[in-house]
Amino acid sequence: MKANQNPKANRHILLLTYGVVVLFVGLAAYFGYFLTVKSENVINNSYNARLDSFADRVVRGEIRSSDGRVLASTEVDRDGNETRVYPYDSLFAHVVGYSTNGKTGLEALSNFYLLTSHVNLVEQVVNELSTVKNQGDNVVSTLDVDLQKTAYDALGKRNGAVVVMEPDTGKILAMVSKPDYNPNTLNADWNSLVAAENTSGQLLNRATQGLYPPGSTFKMVTALEYMRENPENYKDYTFDCDGVYENGDYAIKCYHETAHGHQNLEQAFANSCNGAFANLGLQLDLNGLKNTADQLLFNSELALPIAYSKSSYTMGGGADTWQILQTSIGQGQTQITPIHNAMITAAIANGGTLMKPYLIDHVENAGGDVIKKFMPQSNGNLMTAAESSNLTEFMRDVVTEGTGSALRTDAYTVAGKTGSAEFDKNKETHAWFVGFAPAEQPKVVVSVIVEEGGSGGQAAAPVARAVFDRYFSK
Fold it and tell me: What is the pLDDT of residue 434?
């Protein structure tokens, strides 16, 4: 008797089998991906309460600077009580962070590594049998103590932020935010720091979370869009500045109503001529400007390893004249963080390619053996190499002929942009400077904001000058 053959049923069974095999292979592939790529992020998530239970068996490791100086360590007394100690007090307050009352900065970012121990197996076994905690791994950061101290001292008693990074790697070398706090006395100071009547915001990391109008630093974006719309003749643009640009009922003033006279685009950029850039904005495709802003990561998630605020750009097609005039010079509703401004500047310095900013160089065990090494990663191209070269030329003129004269020196060359951002008519403007050096072969990027500092060239540029001087003296 012949077996009953049903080709259609067999085909369905075969397809089902293939489907199950594909799902199984996909599940296995994702499981492998999760273990190798995603697992540490999940374990180190701030919502993972079980991670802190590692502290029952491991003494939290050290956080160190790039040259091995201790930025955070755990002291254990005779009774086994542990105290987290920060040798530099408030110097690294925001970037290193704290590990009590929650975790911030590097303390949060590297929590998993600090509570993981890779001491040798024999020592681990002996410690387990003796109920002695193992020593956690140490995190060696990208931070440079000398640059951090220079930036901190240069900012002085003024509020604001400084970010220093390498454009070709993304390494963050320094990150300062003021006002600050002392992490060594955080528990005692906590109630006053979080009190409703405290409006100083000492716990806010202004470098990554502070949102400010970009002021004239946004002219890098406006100029880039004009170049894109007029690639063959953008150098033909001219404007006659008498200190106040009037359009209908609206008036845009240059800083202190300075009359810049006859300006081409490069001169207007160097002198930070508000009138020229307001006039320029009226000639732009507003949707194109919005697309360029979005390409430069406004309204986007940033590839940052620590807490940050998202920069915003809201103007699109159909905007009214006043909004266009204001937005084109970096006012209006546009807001940006100092780290984001540093990232845009780093992309210009790096031929258009943005490298992902990072803070951890490597993780090593208590014996000094490297457990994990972090390498530079590209975040994609924000502009073409030709566009970055053109902007670099413009930014070089800012220093040699324009508002960035505080950066003129024979020791190295600087390309940059100053800014004075109005945020309250009854208060002084915020002062900005972003730039890199050497201009021809960039090694370091600096982003500075001084709250209510006034002129970017007079208040923020000297802070950057101090950082550049220190960097190139090392």
Answer: 98
Report whether 432 contacts 340 (CB < 8 A). Answer: no
pLDDT tens track for 243-284: 999 999 999 999 889 999 999 999 999 999 999 999 999 999
Give the DSSP H or E segment for 418: strand 415-421
438 upstream amide cis, omega within 30 of 0: yes
CA angle (167 as vertex; 406, 274 as ends), nearest 5: 45
Helix (H) or strand (E) run with residue 370 in it: strand 370-373
Q: Of all helices (H) and strands (E), which one includes residue 25?
A: helix 7-33
Structural element, H or E, at residue 24: helix 7-33
Identify which of 153, 133, 126 has the alpha carbon closest to the alpha carbon of residue 54.
Answer: 133
Residues 270 and 223 sit within 8 Å (Cβ to Cβ): no
SS3 16: helix
Interatomic CA distance for residues 310 and 281, integer angstroms: 24
DSSP state of 428: P
Question: E strand or H helix at 128, and its extent?
Answer: helix 121-129
Instruction: Output the pLDDT for position 22.
Output: 80
* b/e 118-135 (16+ beta carbons within 10 angstroms → b): bbeeeeeeebeeeeebbb
C-alpha separations of 200 from 180, 204, 208 in Å: 9, 9, 16
d(CA 422, CA 212): 9
Separation CA 194–CA 190 (nearest Å): 6
CATH class of 209-359+376-473: alpha beta
| 214 neighbors 336 (Cβ within 8 angstroms) | yes
* 449 beta partners: 161, 432
Rounded to whole angstroms, the Cα distance separating 165 from 151 reads 12
Helices (H), 138-260: 145-155, 186-193, 206-209, 219-229
Give the pTM: 0.90
* Domain edges within the chain: 209-359+376-473
Please write the tens of the pLDDT for every residue from 187-240: 999 999 999 999 999 999 999 999 999 999 999 999 999 999 999 999 999 999
Q: Over the range 156-180, which residues count as b (16 or more CB within 10 Å of their CB) and which as e?
A: eebbbbbbbbbbbbbbbbbbbbbbb
Nearest to 433 by CA among 117, 141, 214: 214
Q: Is residue 454 within 8 Å of 429, Cβ to Cβ? A: yes
Higher pLDDT, 153 or 316: 153
